[in-house]
Amino acid sequence: MSSHTITTTSAPTAAPAVPSTGRLRPLGIDAVRITGGFWGRRQSVNAAATLPHIGERLESEGWLPNFDLAASGALPHGRRGREFSDSEIYKYLEALAWEIGRTGDASHEERFRAVVARVSAAQEPDGYLNTHFGREGQGARWSDLEWGHELYCLGHLFQAAVARERTRPGADDLLAIARSAADLVCAVFGEDGIQSVCGHPEIEVGLAELSRVTGEPRYARQARLFVDRRGTGSLADIEWGRSYYQDDVPVREAEVLRGHAVRANYLAAGAVDVAVDTGDGPLLDALRTQWANTVARRTYITGGQGSHHQDEAFGEDWELPSDRAYSETCASIGSIMFAWRLMLADGGAQYADLIERTLYNVVATSPAADGRSFYYANTLHQRVPGIPADPDGTSLRASSSLRAPWFEVSCCPTNVARTFASLTAYVATTDDQGLQLHQYAAAEIDTTLPDGQRVALTVETNYPDDGVVRVIAGRSSRAPWSLTLRVPSWAEGAVLRAPGEDDRVVAPGTVTVRRAFEEGDVVELDLPMQPRFTHPDPRIDAVRGCVVVERGPEVFALESVDSAAAALGEDVSDLRIDASVPPHETGGRVYVRAVRSNTGSHAWPYGGVDVGTPSAPQEVPLVAYHDWAGRGPSTMRVWIPAS
Amino acid sequence: MSSHTITTTSAPTAAPAVPSTGRLRPLGIDAVRITGGFWGRRQSVNAAATLPHIGERLESEGWLPNFDLAASGALPHGRRGREFSDSEIYKYLEALAWEIGRTGDASHEERFRAVVARVSAAQEPDGYLNTHFGREGQGARWSDLEWGHELYCLGHLFQAAVARERTRPGADDLLAIARSAADLVCAVFGEDGIQSVCGHPEIEVGLAELSRVTGEPRYARQARLFVDRRGTGSLADIEWGRSYYQDDVPVREAEVLRGHAVRANYLAAGAVDVAVDTGDGPLLDALRTQWANTVARRTYITGGQGSHHQDEAFGEDWELPSDRAYSETCASIGSIMFAWRLMLADGGAQYADLIERTLYNVVATSPAADGRSFYYANTLHQRVPGIPADPDGTSLRASSSLRAPWFEVSCCPTNVARTFASLTAYVATTDDQGLQLHQYAAAEIDTTLPDGQRVALTVETNYPDDGVVRVIAGRSSRAPWSLTLRVPSWAEGAVLRAPGEDDRVVAPGTVTVRRAFEEGDVVELDLPMQPRFTHPDPRIDAVRGCVVVERGPEVFALESVDSAAAALGEDVSDLRIDASVPPHETGGRVYVRAVRSNTGSHAWPYGGVDVGTPSAPQEVPLVAYHDWAGRGPSTMRVWIPAS
After folding, report:
1. Residue contact B315–A323, C-beta within 8 A
2. Is the separation of the CB atoms in B464 and B507 below 8 Å?
3. Beta B454-461 vs B443-448: how paired, if at all?
4. Is the link from the previous residue into A464 a cis peptide, with omega within 30 of 0?
5. For B105-143, what is each residue's pLDDT tens digit?
6. Consecutive H or E run containing A532
7. Spatial separation of the C-alpha atoms in residues A123 and A121, rounded to whole Å
8. Average pLDDT, stretch B523-528?
9. For chain B, percent helix, then strand, then coil, each to nearest 5?
10. Alpha carbon distance B411, A297 (integer Å)
């Protein structure tokens, strides 16, 4: 860990992760307000459409009524949903808690309290809380650690309770419910308890944060026990190996993320919490290495992770097929949790770079514009047009098809909702020198620096539609402080304009302006937003000879609706880009020059294949990947063969 | 169907498929004897090692003892194995039947009779035969058509009985066992019976052949009913869609194989049988189209099929990843069944081309040299060295690792065994004009042509080690007849030498020599065996920019054991071939010129990747794909990036 560590103040910080120490200190969602633009629109849709949609589905699917059945003693008869359905109620509560903290909306508050009451009624006197286990006719408590998800569900309960306590402290029973359950977990799984872990990590991060909120050291110790036990083979071996649930190698010995991509990231996030809170440098070093290797060799251009459908898992190094990309939405949310925690610990811009990439190109891709349907998996190459989901139906999880309103395994909608509701927490941090801006959105920031100075900033920007980010001081400061801006890794040639300084080109990484700001001072970062071709590492076999078009933080895709309109046909499998002509922007759309290869039909596709006479080149517009399939079923590719 | 159809004689033909009509007539395994070489060695190992190995495992795994438990009324207690384990006993019996027919080996005969007796004892009085269903404590008969595999198992029973009846007619009870079970199937699933099908096709081909052997038309009618019902949605919808078991589209409307690759091929083979026996031209046309589209767009260079691990299924057109190739051994055996039936119907060399490719590069790849371990899935790119299987253990099915002695789902070893034991059936056929040689192996052929002439031929060849195939007439003929030789699709520049003719270059397809042969006449086909680069259709994204090396019918691979020895390192992910230097053969091995790219380590693998300074070029030997991993754990790739 860097020697420049700070200790957080005792005041509650309304953020999802509030480490005890670290290079950077998170700002609460009460200190940052996104006022519009790309993310502002998504927060509004999340509040107005997604949260009500989730609430309705949790009722109609029976997953919330399961708690009523538990309270009335009517279980197991009538229980509906998979073994982990309780967790969706907790993620929904977490999302509501952040949303209430963000806006104070009364209807969300009313709904929150009603749901908490129903959860409370289902809790057993000893703290046990799960609708799928422990009753006559159900499996015994903790009898199926591999697949039962009991501790996983409680981890999400703890995160919900933490969100509520950090936004509306003492407002209701949720923290008490969580403490009671956590006390039971410590008793059952403590030093002398069951020597095992949950098949799906999540309890680790939940316990760590619960310890931070409550000051209860037993929860932190239990989180550590779970991290230390992982990788010792306490879970049963399975078809895909124990790597599936990271029980193959101890966390501190692993060199890369592997196995189920959501599990891997949730575990890593919780392990960072444990490492930071216990000052465990070797553990933190191991996690830094795992992050770096995973990003360098096992991550899609979108930031997505996981290339195996079968086990929703990471593949080997360089195994990143576009057409079989799994890139589960939840894995990316886990990746953001992991990267953010490392950033708070270390302060590196590379973590915020990955978070930005992942937010724009996976998290923003999942929900439809109306916030009522979602991608669970995020393919990078759709070979046949998807099939519209039944708007009243429940879809299977991973079909590479169109966005669906709900899934049998519906982890992604609630995960998107809690992320959007807490999004302002990822915009900025502070340290002893000042304030750091990591993500760019039209925003108001109002906080107090460690030296006691109050700082008010307005961020004016249309980013990512254009690259100008203006940070305006809202009050004069009595002493100099440092405003640090992230310069994204792709932003070669970015220009900084600051009061009293000559304009200057700044390199990717971070740039700092230190001064006693006067009210009205403007620091402007001008990021280069012309679209660009990006080439892959030649070891990624699946996209050899292809390029992707990026513009700012956004990845673009070629969709058949556009290729057809450009007289290049409906089938994107036979198109190629003229890479000698740079992509260009016209009328708000990004264009490339492309030809149809007109590869003929052959009895055998190897050897002697006539590649035909290409069509005349055409200018064809691309679509931001997060918007793909927004115009109905289509074929699509992110990586495009280049000639 | 072609107008040049023939009707088979009433004499039993000892072959796996004996259609009632067709362009070509199969020869029985008694008419052809492989005398050595590539396939002769494999038939010997199959007889001496694989069959005993299977016999031992069927005992030790409890799959054959399940029949004893059934007979003694001790089921379901103690039953072992998956729901379809009975089928392995039947495939083992089929393999033994062909082997006994081939060699008359007494110990195999003794074993065969003992197993038949145990199967017989397990059959219910009404003909029902399955150790997993129908007893107290088990699922009811036919209660799980999607996954129960009852009809699938019976299909294999029928194939075993057919093999026995065609090689040792009337020798034991197996045909009676099969008839009794088939009668029950007709009663239960007939016109007015259960209006559904088995989740795993196989009964169709089994019933069709059983009808041919017994002359019982009800079995053929039942096969037709099952084919006609397929694709009408009588099975439950599942996560991967009804295409998984081909219940999405009626067989006569489908345009390509899809879903589970073994299921798809078994169904198609049975549907050809039905189409041929009932003169259903439209159905046969649909199957020809499916075959052509599948071969043109959904088949690996090895002949392997199936690119999805999750559902062991075909992917979309052009979705042929090397590293995630599933290419199940059994799917290739099903592909041979399908192609062979179309060839008997139509006579096209393209079918024998695919069979040859598939035999050399998938079926021969599965078993180890000692015949006691097997690949279930056949990857084309091994990214990390495999892990040796426990020689006494039971492996999971699809790990891309090293060959394993047995699997929890152990369909492949028995399928390989029955294919090797009956391999001579695929060597040659006859028609009214004469005899056709489809596969080249050192062999003796002795048969009678439809005009009554007895023909004896010796095939002398070291193929595929060299390309000279000499066919020597063993007796003089009284009238002219046509000897037709297949010229493989890759054999550009093949030379034919025939008595009384000038040597001539012959084009891929077939070449015919018609004459009244004199004893000792030699027809020689000289096939070009220099190694060659083969390029993929540019629409196959996964191998863009790569080449494969082939030599004759064999596909070659680059293995780390060789790249390391050639000073190019252990990791094949960073190697590329100099495609301007043709592959060449030296000292019996095939070499290419390759460099290590030395791509650096990067924090992010997209954009600005330093591809490094390549190493000095080295000559590196390749290995025949069927031999890969024969020298221990390695990384491997079939498709190699070319510069």
Report:
1. yes
2. no
3. antiparallel
4. yes
5. 999 999 999 999 999 999 999 999 999 999 999 999 999
6. strand A532-534
7. 6
8. 98
9. 35, 20, 45
10. 35
According to the model, what pLDDT value does residue B101 have? 97
Contact assessment for residue B416 and residue B363, using Cβ atoms and an 8 Å cutoff: yes
Q: Do B536 and A606 touch (CB under 8 A)?
A: yes
Q: Which amino acid is at A20?
A: S
Mean pLDDT, rounded, for A570-574:
90
Give the number of A-B residue pairs with CB atoms closer than 8 Å: 157
Smallest Cβ distance to B539: which of A309, A535, A599?
A599
Beta-carbon contacts of residue B87 (< 8 Å; ≥ 6 apart) = B149, B152, B153, B156, B202, B411
CA B209 vs CA B149, B165, B219, B269, B569: distances in Å: 19, 11, 9, 11, 53
**Which residues in A398-503 belong to E strands, given as ranges?**
428-431, 434-437, 443-448, 454-461, 468-473, 481-487, 494-497
Alpha-carbon distance A491 to B13, whole Å? 74
Interchain CB distance below 8 Å, A607 and B315: no
Q: Which tokens hold the place of B269?
A: 């083979």
| Interatomic CA distance for residues B619 and B585, integer angstroms | 11
- Chain B residues lying within 8 Å of A574, measured CB to CB: 538-539
Cβ-defined contact of A535 to B607 (cutoff 8 Å): yes
Cβ within 8 Å, pair B604-A574: no
**Which residues in A lie closer than 8 A to residue B595 (C-beta atoms)?**
none
The pLDDT value given to residue A11: 57
d(CA A179, CA B125): 64
DSSP A125: T
ipTM for the predicted complex: 0.93
Contacts of B542 in chain A (CB under 8 A): 321, 541-542
Tokens of B46: 């199959």
- Would you say A15 and A425 are in contact if contact means Cβ atoms under 8 Å apart? yes
Q: Which of A401, A604, A636 to mutate to test the interface with B (most CBs of B within 10 A)?
A: A604
pLDDT the model gives residue B13: 93
Which of A537, A540, A546, A636 to mutate to probe the B interface, most B CBs <10 Å? Answer: A537
For residue B259, what are its two tokens?
Answer: 């879903």
Please provide the average confidence, as pLDDT, over all residues in chain B.
95
DSSP assignment letter at A441: -
Closest by Cβ to B535, choosing from A490, A601, A609: A609
Q: How far is CA A246 from the centre of its chain?
A: 20
| Nearest residue of chain A to residue B290 (CA atoms) | A603
Is 60 exceeded by the pLDDT of residue B515?
yes
3-state SS class at A308: strand
For residue A457, list its beta bridge partners. A445, A473
Can you say how many angstroms the Cα of residue A133 is from the centroid of all Cα atoms in its chain?
A: 30
Comparing C-alpha atoms, which of B380, B260, B354 is closest to residue B315? B260
Please, what is the average pLDDT of chain A?
A: 95
Given an 8 Å threshold on Cβ–Cβ distance, is B538 in contact with A601?
no
Report d(CA A18, CA A14) in Å as an integer.
8
Shortest distance between the Cα of B373 and any Cα of chain A, in A, equals: 19
Residue A11 burial (CB < 10 Å; 0-12/13-18/19+)?
A: exposed
* Residues 6 or more apart whose Cβ sits within 8 Å of residue A101: A14, A29, A30, A163, A166, A167, A168
- Cβ contact B316–A537 (<8 Å): no
Query: Would you say B329 and B366 are in contact if contact means Cβ atoms under 8 Å apart?
Result: yes
CB contact at 8 A, B383 and A317: yes
Cis bond leading into A76, ω under 30°? yes
